[in-house]
């Protein structure tokens, strides 16, 4: 018997640390780690000890004997990874670098942001002897995209916050919620009171689609729709016209599939989640019965992960529909599938899409249509969205091996009153820091923030997470990303390359409370968290989110 890793996998790699036979891969030391869609257990090596299942922060690991019918494809997904990446016998255990054994007594680090990258960096730093950390976030609730980006019907993924909560017990860690850099405190003031500042502020904006009609009424970014249904305070008052029977989602990454799934899920099912009350009320009145998801390339290049695709195949009352002609294996796709360096996950995407196409619709009341090789050229309407004009694409391979979508002269129009554009997140500039507008990141070299012209490091300033590398990976990807940044910070501290704070450690607290009297610490957040859970328990829900400052402060009092 073996254990199998399933959909909620967050790539946290906690399971890797406890495995006694090194059967879980890729590890953070291996090249595929930062780009893999999930971790995998080698069925030939697993000794059925169960240590990984106990350690998994999101309960994504099951014994093969306990797999449900919908979990069965993961047995093959796990095994196929090792056909492509066979284990190497006698691999050496990683050696702990000397800088991770040093004494950092007196070192003070500020972290801006409170999402996964920020918390992973904090956990790593407070594990160093003598180091202390202060975290700042402009919102009154922590956890970033875990709270505001993970779909409400994926509760297992959100369980990773249980690891972050352990910082509440650390005397060397302090949380400051409701404190905005550039408003309540400046970047310079942070540097004057800390040896280093790590910016882990994520990517809160979105990429543009770049077609006419993009800004018509009824055309929205998926990022704002996701933030709306997850109760982000900046988006709680948004409205979306759900009166039409069809919605079109542009893009086919995981966010696109989340949006489509939420639009079509029975509100009675959503009521069992932590979806925001205002969104639940709106979805109860929704007339949407069909969602069309547009991908510009083929299934082999689809942005979604296999676990997200598999989840769509078991939606109650929803037909998942794919046109067999759009996922047929052409000569170029076959060459990709036959290549020795093609990942099994790519082959699985093609297989799953073709299986769905072969099954066909079964007459369920709602439809989720996945389109491939289709690009919007215009969002059409006079005062608001009325339709989307599409162009059919064909695949071509460029000289560098990249597969691109080339438009043909075949066009069509889809009538709709709602378009959600899911073409990627984009970072936002931080006051007093350099910014790469094109990439949406803070310019950096491995995590050290650099001057964009000279590429020289700015002493004491670092980046982690999406604002460092762009919006890629899953939650656990931020763990390695944050640790890589912390490694550089520790080395710089030992080398004497960090500036010495000109103010004492206590001065930051006085400055913050003077400018933001409503600052919330970890004890305050714990009280808010308990109040949300209590409100949810009364309604048989995991929690009822407080989405505005007034309700949050009421929970504290």
Short description:
With 557 residues, the protein is α/β, with parallel strands linked by helices. The chain is built from 20 helices and 22 strands. The protein has a seven-stranded mixed sheet, with helices on both faces. Strands 10-18-11-12-14-13 form a six-stranded parallel sheet.
General description of the model:
By secondary structure, the protein is α/β, with parallel strands linked by helices. It is built from 20 helices and 22 strands. The longest helix has 18 residues, at 477-494. The N and C termini lie far apart (52 Å).
The beta-strand count equals: 22
Proportion of residues in extended strands: 15-25%
**Broad shape:** globular
Q: Give the terminus-to-terminus CA distance.
A: 52 Å
